[in-house]
């Protein structure tokens, strides 16, 4: 294609796709080969830009477009001898930069706006009363999770796992419940509304909401004032609550099932600095599929090669924790 030109609105009507495709082709080929090795392939991968705003520099030579990339895709997995399809979706905000020369437009920059890392990821809390759970076992050479003995402890107090996964999928693009960053609130609501897990409310919630022994989001007076425990909306705090309740933290990703909760520390295996929470909504044996908020994603693969939207992208040293949602109370 030729370089794009501005239309009447001053917005680039076309961009230099040939140059852009040439730049990303090596990454796309690597993604294809990595998926093929695991008997997986991506199909129907489509992206549209929505909620766009455009700013032009004073000299007219630079145009900045801020928008959300609304993406849908299907991952086809044949590793088990049967065809499985995971219909994924995500919304990722980004900033595209164009330069204008003589009426011609060139795409000169792109920056993803990474909102996966909450601020704050955890809040002030009482000291944990149990030893830190171990992260998922990873391959020292690659940093990627590895498979191991598939052992899950039987118990009678876990949530309805299928209900948790179904609620997450149905609400992946829903409201944020009043949070700027609601990754953990989203998981908590999936556990409550989908999993049927009762809130754990203390006698004096106004004084004990910082205590990770409790888990709640309640209305405190006739005027509708909300009070939530730190464990409801803080990534570390929810993991601490589950640890205190006695949840099983899985050591291998192949043990995970839809409805389990997953946490990540983007920079390593320190449980006290967990950054983010998601809901596992699929496991094909080679990859986990995660549904989450901030950013909004549905059934998106946990890991692919760098350059593809995933938790592993740009985080080679991440630490993962996976728990079977559980309440002893």
Short note summarizing the structure:
By secondary structure, the protein is of the alpha+beta class. The chain has six helices and 13 strands.
Report on the structure:
It is a single chain. By secondary structure, the chain is α+β, with helices and mostly antiparallel strands. The protein is built from 6 helices and 13 strands. Strands 1, 2, 3, 4, 5, 8, 9, 10, 11, 12 and 13 form an 11-stranded antiparallel beta sheet that branches. Strands 6-7 form a two-stranded antiparallel sheet. The N and C termini lie far apart (63 Å).
Work out the number of β strands: 13
Number of helices: 6
The Cα radius of gyration reads 22 Å
Biggest β-sheet: count, sense, barrel?
11 strands, antiparallel
Secondary-structure element string: EHEEEEHHHEEHHEEEEEE
Q: Kindly report the average pLDDT value.
A: 78
Residue stretches low in confidence (pLDDT < 50, at least 5 long) are 1-21, 115-122
Overall SS class: alpha+beta
Strand content: 25-35%
Oligomeric status: single chain
Distance N to C terminus: 63 Å
The percentage helix is 10-25%
> How would you describe the shape?
globular
């Amino acid at each position: 294609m030729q370089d794009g030109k501005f239309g009447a609105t001053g917005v680039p009507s076309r961009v230099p796709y040939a140059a852009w495709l040439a730049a990303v082709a090596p990454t796309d080929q690597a993604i294809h080969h990595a998926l093929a090795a695991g008997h997986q392939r991506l199909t129907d991968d489509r992206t549209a830009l929505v909620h766009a705003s455009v700013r032009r520099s004073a000299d007219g030579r630079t145009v900045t477009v801020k928008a959300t990339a609304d993406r849908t895709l299907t991952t086809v997995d044949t590793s088990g001898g049967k065809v499985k399809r995971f219909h994924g979706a995500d919304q990722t905000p980004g900033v595209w930069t164009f330069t204008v020369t003589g009426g011609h437009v060139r795409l000169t920059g792109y920056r993803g706006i990474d909102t996966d890392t909450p601020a704050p990821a955890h809040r002030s809390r009482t000291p944990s009363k149990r030893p830190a759970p171990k992260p998922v076992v990873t391959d020292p050479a690659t940093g990627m999770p590895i498979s191991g003995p598939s052992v899950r402890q039987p118990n009678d107090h876990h949530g309805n796992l299928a209900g948790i996964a179904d609620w997450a999928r149905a609400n992946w693009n829903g409201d944020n419940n009043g949070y700027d960053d609601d990754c953990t609130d989203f998981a908590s609501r999936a556990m409550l509304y989908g999993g049927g897990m009762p809130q754990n409310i203390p006698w004096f919630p106004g004084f004990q909401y910082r205590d990770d022994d409790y888990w709640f989001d309640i209305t405190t007076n006739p005027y509708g004032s909300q009070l939530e425990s730190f464990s409801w909306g803080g990534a570390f705090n929810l993991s601490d609550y589950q640890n205190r309740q006695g949840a099983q933290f899985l050591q291998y990703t192949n043990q995970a099932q839809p409805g389990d909760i997953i946490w990540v520390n983007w920079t390593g295996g320190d449980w006290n600095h967990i950054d983010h929470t998601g809901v596992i909504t699929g496991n094909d044996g080679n990859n986990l599929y995660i549904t989450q908020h901030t950013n909004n994603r549905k059934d998106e693969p946990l890991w692919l090669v760098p350059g593809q939207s995933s938790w592993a992208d740009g985080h080679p040293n991440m630490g993962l924790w996976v728990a079977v949602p559980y309440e002893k109370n």
